[in-house]
Amino acid sequence: MTKYKFDDKRKHHRKVSFINAICETNNCTFTDFITNISSGGLFIETGIPLSVNKDISITFVFRYAKAPTQVVGKMVRVDQKGIGVKLYDSIPESNLSNW
């Protein structure tokens, strides 16, 4: 298993995922995929040029959910693969356990 330098900084274990997400910032709206998710944050693969320390709203549907989930967070990491987002409010672990 690959260990990344930021793994030890995370409070929540991330789960590998492939979730279609609608993302909105002050400057644009786009659709891409959440490739890992935890109760405190997520990573979205995207080629859209974005900036750190900006807010982002993300809407997606958990498997087996009846309604979409909307979360808001701050982009804390931007690289050539996508964006790391720290959420302002946690996603309940019960939503993630069925993933």
Task: Provide keyphrases for this structure.
single chain, 99 residues, mainly beta, Thrombin, subunit H, 6-stranded antiparallel barrel, disordered N terminus
Description:
- It is a single chain.
- This protein has one helix at residues 93-97; strands at 15-24, 29-37, 41-45, 55-60, 69-79, 82-87.
- Residues 1-6 have low confidence and may be disordered.
- It has a six-stranded antiparallel β-barrel with strand order 1-2-3-6-5-4.
- It is mainly beta and 99 residues long.
- It contains one helix and six strands.
- The longest helix has 5 residues, at 93-97.
- The radius of gyration is 13 Å and the shape is globular.
- The chain has a single domain, classed as Beta Barrel (Thrombin, subunit H).
- Helices cover 5% and strands 47% of the residues.
Strand order, main sheet: write it out: 1-2-3-6-5-4
Level-1 CATH class name: Mainly Beta
Structural class: mainly beta
Radius of gyration, Cα only, in angstroms? 13 Å
N- to C-terminal distance: 21 Å
Q: Give the number of domains.
A: 1
Q: Which descriptor suits the 3D outline?
A: globular
| Percentage of residues in DSSP E strands | over 45%
CATH architecture: Beta Barrel
From the 3D structure, determine the CATH topology: Thrombin, subunit H
- The tally of helices reads 1
- Give the ordered list of helices and strands: EEEEEEH
Describe the structure in brief.
With 99 residues, this protein is mostly beta strands. Helix content is 5%, strand content 47%. The longest helix is centred in the C-terminal third of the chain and has 5 residues, at 93-97.
